[in-house]
Amino acid sequence: MEASVMALISAAIAIGLGTIGTGLGQGNAISKAMEAIGRNPEASSTIRTTLLIGLAFIESLCIYALVISFMIMGHVK
Amino acid sequence: MHAIEFYTKEILGFKLHLDTLLYSWGLILFLIFLSWLASKKFKIIPLGFQGVFEIIYDYLNNLAEGMIGKDSKEYIPLVMTIFLFVLVSNWLGLIPGFIPPTRDINTTLALAIVSFLSFNYFGIKSSYLILAHHQGKPKGLKNFLIFIIKGFWKWFSHFFQPTPALWNSLEGVLKYLMVPFLCLLFFILNIIEEFARVISLSIRLMGNIMGEHLAVSILLGLLFMVAKLDFVSAVTTPIIWASSAFVMIIGALTGFIQALIFAVLTLSYIAHAVAEEH
């Protein structure tokens, strides 16, 4: 197989696998936050702020995968 | 591709991204103009731009008071400036034809370095202030030098952070064997953490904005591929328009949240640096 074809496939695998974990993690975090708001609606503003910061931390993992896949795409001739 | 490539020019051996520079200077002038407009005449009952700025200030100040305490007002100007710059430059990318300066790693790295320098500065300053509060102002040159070294050590010792607690909790010979080794390990880990903060702040913002900008430009590029007067084009064009509008709405939300995250993380790093150990 040519190097550029392998680079294309590996870029696709990098972003694909990266999004699976991020999606699972974010879904878990949001479902727990919804449960917490349902139990105690008065704390919703605190929970929302904490949730957003946590989601951004989880999302940055996916963004690292995106950056890596861009770096690999740079090698495609 | 338009979204990844930059209009570069070499001046004095430096490779300059002219589009990023131009847009960020434009945004800085725009923000200065807006702030001048907002602070031209202060009123008791805020209207117009003054009201908008006061809403943002109140929101950030409430967050900061929760993290830092009552002397949080000192840090709000820096954090709010970062927030406004990142927010406006993220939203600039939503207008077709414009380029958000934050999709460039150089802009976000510069912002992250500003954040890094400022939280270290505030940490050093607060350790000297706490020392002066506990033992009073030094008199004479010798005491002054001791004061400077003590304050610097007070700040620098946070790099060895969990060591004192470990020293107190362990007992026996194990303590003398393990703790020096672990102290070195903690020091290396803490130094790595400082640099990881800068790298993660900059790459998070850059990746988010570049990915979103790329998605919009790819979707709008599809329009040119299907631009024919036949049945396929008649079906796909509205779908492409709708999906690019959807991505833009998501992008507006992402831009706001990323600006907020950048500001809140800077604030929490400052809060961590200025917190007094008990």
What does this molecule look like?
The complex is a heterodimer of chains A (77) and B (278). By secondary structure, chain A is mainly α. Chain A has a single domain (3-71), classed as F1F0 ATP synthase subunit C (F1FO ATP Synthase). In chain A, 87% of the residues lie in helices and 0% in strands. Chain A is built from two helices and no strands. Chain A has helices at residues 3-39, 44-73. In chain A, helix 1 (3-39) runs antiparallel to helix 2. The longest helix of chain A is centred in the first third of the chain and has 37 residues, at 3-39. The model of chain A has no long low-confidence stretch (mean pLDDT 88). Chain B is globular, with a radius of gyration of 25 Å. A two-stranded antiparallel ribbon of chain B has the order 1-2. The model of chain B has no long low-confidence stretch (mean pLDDT 83). Chain B has one domain. With 278 residues, chain B is mostly helical. In chain B, strand 1 and strand 2 form a beta hairpin. Chain B contains eight helices and two strands; from the N terminus they run E-E-H-H-H-H-H-H-H-H. Classes of the chains: A mainly alpha (77), B mainly alpha (278). Chain A binds chain B through residues 49, 52-53, 56, 59-60, 63-64, 66-67, 70, and chain B through 4, 63, 200, 203-204, 206-208, 210-211, 257-258, 260-261, 264-265.
